[in-house]
Amino acid sequence: IRSWAAASTVFAGAETSMARSHSAKTRDVPRGTDADPCPIQLLPRLRASRPAFSHTRSCSEEDGTVRTTDPLCACVWQLRRTSSVPLGVPIHCSVLGSLQSLLIVVFFVDMAIMLLVGGRLLFVATRTRRVAEAAIGMSAAAGALGVILGLTSTVVLERDPEAFPIWALGRLLSAVGPAALAIGNWRIYRAEQTWAAAAAAIVCATALAGCAIRTLSGSITPPGDASAGGLLSATASLAAYGWGTFEAFRYHGQLKRRLALGLADPVVTQQFRLWGISGLCALGSTATGFLFTFGLGRSLSDSTVPFVGVQLALFAAAVCLWLAFFPPGFYRRRLASRSSFA
Q: For residues 128 and 34, which has the higher predicted lDDT (pLDDT)?
């Protein structure tokens, strides 16, 4: 992350100009189509105030490829290919570098928070022996690991057939996430009601069925594919997040009325509110991806603004989840003092 941030800082001070020349020692980079301008044209020549990068990057075009001696050219072209920004849209390298840096930092922080919350809840469950903590912890940890493994197989390894086991394991963990969340919703809010147990079982079956269909296809597909398995997986996630969000806000409303009478803990009341906000952010992100995939027939990553908005919403969901289950001491004291003052 630090290296990426440093590269983004270098790009931010760059100007949009690039000199071309021929060189004997070169590296092949795909050139693209007419609608996709050569990325070498988009690369800046860094300011002369940075001596280490002030030299001219040389490149040449031969046999339909762009050949360059500069690894930075190849690196940025790879970013350009995998970026959510359409290739046909001109964009300054500093903007691209800043956007990529922001999304990468947000993604890693998001995953770290989810793994931390999930791990701590699973550790608490080993002591309490209760299903609720184990289910919510498994939902957070398995969901984060599923996303990491999925991106590793599709983006980092570029859908290499040998990465299929990694992708399949990621799909399984991604199915465990909403299934465990549905079980947690049942055990926390509706433990005595039969219909809630049946609803949790339906969500689990739907999530696992979607995972099985996508895995049996034998090919690595992106997270938002419009197949039958993708539809079942997205439906299970929407049901689990929607159910959990409704229950959290409903219980928060009950605690808020009790708090006015001095019969509830202000910290616990705020925790359920944050849990509801976390679920709402996750639900909105999932619904947006569902709309793009099955409503508009295109990938969410093809639209920059919605894609960035979804990533930021998922980050907000992770932060709210952390504050809901493991609020820091200063946050607890602040809520207690505000309640006493009121």
A: 128
What is the separation of C-alpha 294 from the centre of its chain, rounded to a whole number of angstroms? Answer: 19
Can you read off the two tokens belonging to residue 270? 């705020």
Q: How far is CA 277 from CA 158, 312, 334, in A?
A: 35, 13, 19
212-268: pLDDT as tens digits: 998 898 778 776 678 888 999 999 999 999 999 999 999 999 999 998 888 888 889
| Of 289, 325, 328, 314, nearest in space to 108 by CA | 314
Confidence of residue 304 (pLDDT cuts 50, 70, 90): confident
Cβ neighbours around 49 below 10 Å, total: 8
Write out the two tokens for 178.
Answer: 């909403």
Q: Which residues pair with 27 in a beta bridge?
A: 68
- Rounded to two decimals, the pTM is 0.70
Q: Which helix (H) or strand (E) holds 67?
A: strand 65-68
Of 22, 135, 41, the residue nearest 93 (C-alpha): 41
188 CB burial (10 A radius; 0-12, 13-18, 19+) = buried
Which of 167, 166, 169, 244 is closest to 203 using CA atoms?
Answer: 244
Tokens standing for residue 117: 């919350």
113 neighbors 131 (Cβ within 8 angstroms): no
Contact between 69 and 20 (Cβ < 8 Å): no
Alpha-carbon separation of residue 249 from 83, 259, 270, 273, 328 (angstroms):
36, 15, 10, 6, 22
